[in-house]
Design brief:
Layout (H helix, E strand, L loop, with lengths): L1 H27 L6 H9 L3 H6 L5 H16 L7 H19 L5 H8 L2 H8 L3
Helix pairs in contact: 4-5, 5-6
Amino acid sequence: MSKKLIALVTGSLMMVCFVSLPVIAEDDEAPKYKIKDVMKKAMKGPLSKKVAGGDASADEKKELYEMLVAMGKNSPPKGDEESWKKLTGALVKAAKAAVDGDADAGAALKKAANCKACHSEHKGS
């Protein structure tokens, strides 16, 4: 019986390791979008304003969310990493609320998309 128990435990551990492996590999991948791309398309471009104004399609909301998640995974050109995570985290949270259909998402996105707050501390030269 002890051999069966050992085989069961070993098999279970192997399954956990193999199931967790793709998740670990995903986190190590480079972000899908660079900061410059997100700034150009989402923040300077119409996407963020469209989502905040409530005029975006579900696909546009999802695209903004994905872009902001990727931006947060990038390292800031300058400044504190903790501040970067806080500022980009607020953007991601607001974009996720928009994807989820939250009525207050537009106001939250407008507040989180404070250019000066982020650029003062993190924009490179």
